[in-house]
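Consider a concrete sample entry:
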Amino acid sequence: MSFSVNTNVGAMTALQSLSATGKSLATTQTRITTGLAVSSTKDDSASYTIAQGLRGDVGSLKAVSSSLSRAKSVVDVATAGAEQISDLVNQMKAKATTASDTGLDAASLSANAKDFTALKDQISTVIASSSFNGTNLLSSTSAGTVKALQSTDTTAATLDVANQDFETGVTTAIGSTFTTAAGAKTMVDTPSTVSDTINASLSTLGSASRKIDSQMTFVSKLSDTITTGIGNLVDADLAKESANLQALQVKQQLGVQALSIANQAPQAITSLFR
């Protein structure tokens, strides 16, 4: 065995081993801190690139979900308004039927006529109020329509819901009030006709709402699946990394001791000259 004060092979070997342990320890600590086994393209270029692309898809799906949520709110508000108007039209029919009784006195006829007019005015108020974020599916004045994204594919058709125009189909169709029993009798059938129009619109709105709900559920599940896939690609196994951290810390301590011992070896040469 040769001794040299210029070259300490043992110390160099111990230093290299300690340096490698330090790098592994830093990598493990980063994984535990971030929760990611692949947090940079330096870790795994292929997995990192795929994960970044999938993260972009998740972001796009969030935009689709937001568009569908907005459309859902617009349709739900319109549906609530249409259902309320349907109830009001039924009340109007009852008032007209009551007023068509020729045995009714003038005061009662007038009271029913005023109620009929008040109900019609209330319908106009409901139509004007059935708006969400500036979009009203019941008002022809606003000419509001719904166009929502269905997927991240820009070439895919949007989910459309047309304006139901209750101002023409309901308010205008009902016309003016009655002043006589004969006039009330002619108005009895009008609410029934208007009810058919309202029911058709309710069917359209209900179908659109169910379609939006279904698409929202699909988009949510797809986003969750992609997010899980990203996790499978880049997430760290924290239980494994925790065990690895403890092992590396012990290895680092042993490496420091080995380096200390190796650095003391050249001092033994001085004993040869005593």
Notes: The two ends are 20 Å apart (CA to CA). Residues 66-234 form a domain with the f41 fragment of flagellin, N-terminal domain fold (CATH 1.20.1330.10). Helices lie at 9-34, 45-99, 106-129, 166-174, 181-187, 189-234, 238-264. The chain has seven helices and two strands.
